[in-house]
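Hey, I'm writing a tutorial for new members on how sequence and structure tokens pair up, and I'd like a real worked example in the thread rather than a made-up one. If someone can provide the structure for the chain below, I'll link this post from the tutorial.
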Amino acid sequence: TFRSSSGIGRSIAERLATEGYRVVVNSSSSVAAGEALARALPGAVYIRGDCSVSSGCQALVDEVVGRFGRLDVLVCNAGIGKVIPHDRLDLIDDDYISKIFSLNCFGPLWLSRAAMPHLKSAKDGCIVMISSAAGSRPMGSSVPYSMSRAGMNQLTRLLAKSSGPVRVNAVAPGLIKTRITEGSEWDAVHAVVAKSAPLRRVGEPEDMVEAV
């Protein structure tokens, strides 16, 4: 499960481990947290790698297969975002656009490309994309974020149609409370979501695990 040292990825990794999977925990920077999680899960390992570049994605998959000899499940969980009002296009710089598409949209494509031969050799290979409701509705933390998730959703549809017998699905939640969605700039967003949600709160990472 790529980008899994905290938040949604951590919860998914923990659940997969309880189901008997040997989990590979990955992150690009939170090394201590990733290593600690891997130590806490039976049979798990931590591999540091950058999912925002093609070479990093290929190297991650190569190392996983080198260590375990197989790859059965790919969970694409990496993502970044920050709050930029949709009517403030002037606040969006080119560097942010490049970073968010490299990680949120191109990363899953590069990982899927690297993993697909191994998943097709597995007994029941599958890919799970962790997307967002912002990919299909006019919402989300920023215009580039929503666009990147729309691209991820379309990637899921295309691979699901063309990659059998490998199964490809996406889980697309609303606002989930994680390290990325904390901070003063997110307070108003949390308040709006909590007010409108039937449970009167934002989602927690654990809420998503069953869907994965």
